[in-house]
Hints:
The chain has 131 residues and is an all-beta fold. The protein is built from no helices and eleven strands. The strands form two sheets. Strands 2, 4, 5, 6, 9, 10 and 11 form a seven-stranded mixed sheet that branches. It has a four-stranded antiparallel sheet with strand order 1-3-8-7, with no helix packed on it. The N and C termini lie far apart (39 Å). The model has no long low-confidence stretch (mean pLDDT 95).
Amino acid sequence: QLQLVESGGGLVQAGGSLRLSCVPYGFNLDNYLIGWFRQAPGKEREGVACISADGTKSDYIDSVKGRFTISRDNAKNTIFLQMHSLKSEDTGIYYCAGDKNLHPTIYKDYVTLADFEYETWGQGIQVTVSS
Length: 131
């Protein structure tokens, strides 16, 4: 069974930093578009950041641009989300998700924050930013 496992969440004061990690079990991330999503209490899930299968392109929701950085280390088979200058509105459950690229030579640099395109999801991890 394909699975993604997130780690690195927790409680941090506003202005602080956290780094989330995402590790797959049962597969390799090489041909996967990876995204980070979050859901705040009472709100819909939203795409936060994503990185293409070949790591050359990334995309971010406007509210985190300049503060969050997504990266991938294929040698370690791990995806990271580095978060700086955290705000209370960043509070939520953060999910790592993967979309397998079935056409590696064509869509290797494809990025999207549309959650319906991702078929493999982690259980989520809590991030709480206190003001």
